[in-house]
Design a protein that fits this description.
- With 125 residues, this protein is mainly α.
- It has a domain at 60-124.
- It is 41% helix and 0% strand.
- It contains four helices and no strands.
Length: 125
């Protein structure tokens, strides 16, 4: 079989050398692609959509909360959540069962959530 040799100005042949061991008869039998401008095509391509956003509208809250209270990355949030839980027990709390550390924790988590939404929307665009 002839090996195709081409210079940098020439385009390579449509079939690489020895792939798929096609003969000239096979190449002639291959269907030709006809592009119809303005009309629907007789073939469809695979979708090449790439999703770079982190969240969807339906999974933002669960994913975000799992990230915010991950003990490996956000130990401070886990600590304040634990303290808030312990403050709910009036026998061991000096706040009378009112979780006072929950208010700053909620503020921090909500602000971080707003920033995550803005970042994810810009990432999605």
């Amino acid at each position: 079989m002839k090996r195709w040799i081409y210079s940098s100005q020439d385009k390579p042949p449509s079939n690489p050398y020895n792939w798929p061991k096609s003969t000239p008869e096979d190449i002639r039998e291959r269907p030709q692609r006809i592009v119809k401008i303005g009309n629907s095509q007789a073939f469809y391509f695979c979708n090449n959509f790439v999703k770079t956003s982190k969240y969807e509208a339906w999974n933002f809250i669960p994913k975000f909360l799992l990230e915010e209270f991950n003990p490996k990355t956000k130990i401070a949030n886990c600590y304040f959540l634990l303290i808030s839980g312990l403050q709910c027990i009036p026998q061991i709390s000096n706040t009378g069962g009112i979780p006072t550390t929950l208010i700053p924790l909620v503020i921090v988590v909500v602000i971080d959530g707003i920033f995550q939404i803005f970042e994810d929307v810009s990432r999605h665009r």
